[in-house]
Each structure stands twice: as C-alpha cells, then as structure tokens.
Amino acid sequence: MKKLNISLIVPSNANYAEINYFFSSFLKWKKFPSEIILVNIIKKVKLNNYVLSFLKKNKIKLIMLNKLNAFPGEARNIAIKNSNFNIIAFLDTSTIAKKGWLEYGYNKIIKEKYDIVFGKTLYLAHTKKDKVILSSTYGFKSIATLPGSILNKRILAYTGIFLDNIRAGEDAEWLYRLGMYKFSKCQSKKIINYTNLQGKTYTFFLKKWFRNYSYTKKLSYLNSSKELYFIALSLFLFIISLTWNSFFSNWSTKDPLYVPHITKITILILFIFYFYLRVFLVPLKKGVNFLFILQSFPKIFIFSLLLDIVKCLAFILSKLRKY
C-alpha cells in the first residue's frame, strides 16, 4: 500500500451508518492520503473498529474534529488550517470516489504542475422520482464540483478560503472566485458518484433550492438570475399585448396593425417556449433520455416550474433583505 502526501478533507453531516459506508469504499482504494481530516458538523460520529484498525495499521493519520452547527464552508476552513500537506483533496460523505481518483489528481499536480484538478461528479438516480428530480436539476452527465477536487494549497493565498457564514453555495462561490485567476486547471477523468438522492422528496429539493437562493446577496455568482430575466421579458411582452390594439389600431379590426386575440397568443407563445426549454432543451443538454422525457414530461414540467418559482421568490426576498 502506498500513501500520498495529501490531506483529504471531509466535512460530515452523516450518521454512523452513512460515514462508515463512505469509508467502506475508501478502503478499496489502491493509494491513500497520508492524513484524513473529518469535521463533524451535525453530530459527533465514531468510525467502526474495522476502519480505525485499517487506518492505524497503514499509518494513515485521522484528525477528527467536532464543530457542531458549523456551515460547510467553516468546516472546510477549519480542516484546511489543520492540514499538514501542501496538496489537499475534497470529498463529501455523500460522494463515492473509485480507485484511481486520488493518484490521478496527485500526479496531475506533482508531475504535470497543475494547480487544481476539478472534481467530476455524477449524480445517481435509483427510482423514477430520482430521475424526474435529476431531469429538472443536475442532469445525467457528470459536472464539475468541489467534492472530488484536488489542489495545491498555495492557490488559497490568492482566492481566499470559503465563505463560512452561509448554509449552502459556498463551494460554487469559491469556484467562481477561482475563475478570476489564471491558475493551471484541468478536470479529472475519474468520476465520483453522488449517492444521496435516494429517499429525498420533491419537497426536500424545493426547500433546498429556496435555501440556496436565499443567500444570493452573499453569493456573487448568483447575482444574475436567468429566471428573473425571463419573467421580466414575459411581463413586458404581456403588457405590450394588452395595449397593442388600443395603441396601434385604436381597436379597429380593419386596421392592418390590429391583431385578434393578441393577449392569448402571447401567453400561449410564452408557455410553449418555457415548456420546450424546461422539458426538452435543458434536460436533453444534461443527458436525459428522450424516451424518459416523453414518459414523464408532466412531472418534469411541474417540478421544474415549481423550482423556478421557488428560486425567483428566494432571489427577490434575498434582495429585499437588509442583511
């Protein structure tokens, strides 16, 4: 067994079964980090004796910190401060990294001199409901994420550390800041799997989206909302349709500029455009199977619509808050 000079940082809101399931996949790796920094943010959780024995036998240092009620960004910052190596890797307890992930990123940084190797996460669906949720959110293609990323710690001197006063979105905000610098970057070819969709309800994700977008005042990368632009444009066109015949034709049906049923036509066009965008165009770009869309388009449409409404409400409320 070979150890690499890496600090693996894992913020955890997992229970006993979940954290030990995470480590059960870790034990299958061929190469390991020299230290693991586990930060419990919900409850103090212990590892089972088999995992502890494996770490001790292979001289993998385990630093277990308890910072209850901390936000994920604060947990990551605490772990970074306690790390003893210049290369750090990030995982979450809901992610499963397969063999080869750690050494791939390590070699990219050590041998090819990259500053950061982005994680590549694939969200796994277990049920039809999970597939509907993914069709409206993350999709079925792997996406760049902080979990799974491996970096040289020196870049934090430029980007700064993570926001520690928000419940969600601090990882994407940090990646947004990172994009402002010309560091040497690449994306990992080793996909990690996100396994925590199972058992989550539609309501759970509506609450999650509302929570995330409630912090847009603190998250610069969310300050421009496409949904709001679409609503503003729709309202503008709707108002134009209401006044068109009055302003341009004085309600004369003989006037060439008179358009019968213009308001209904405008609403229908906007509905068709939105329906096509959220049910077909966006899901297909995210790798959703066309046959599944045809089978489930009512649920995909309704859930996508509810998500967009929730996001817009949260965005507006965030802007109205003083703090």
Which features characterize this protein?
11 helices; alpha/beta; 323 residues; Spore Coat Polysaccharide Biosynthesis Protein SpsA, Chain A; nine-stranded mixed β-sheet; 48% helix; 9 strands; single chain
Can you describe what's shown?
- The protein has 11 helices and 9 strands.
- The chain is an alpha/beta fold.
- It folds into 2 domains: 198 residues, Spore Coat Polysaccharide Biosynthesis Protein SpsA, Chain A; 95 residues, no CATH class.
- Strands 1, 2, 3, 4, 5, 6, 7, 8 and 9 form a 9-stranded mixed sheet that branches.
- Strand 2, helix 2 and strand 3 form a beta-alpha-beta unit.
- Helix 5 packs across helix 11 and helix 10 packs across helix 11.
- The protein is elongated, with a radius of gyration of 24 Å.
Structural class comes to alpha/beta
Number of helices: 11
Number of domains: 2
Assign the CATH architecture of the largest domain: Alpha-Beta Complex
CATH class of the largest domain: Alpha Beta
- Write down how many β-strands occur, each being a DSSP E stretch of 2 or more residues: 9
Quick summary:
With 323 residues, the protein is α/β, with parallel strands linked by helices. 48% of the residues lie in helices and 18% in strands. It has 2 domains: 2-199, Spore Coat Polysaccharide Biosynthesis Protein SpsA, Chain A, CATH 3.90.550; 226-320, no CATH class.
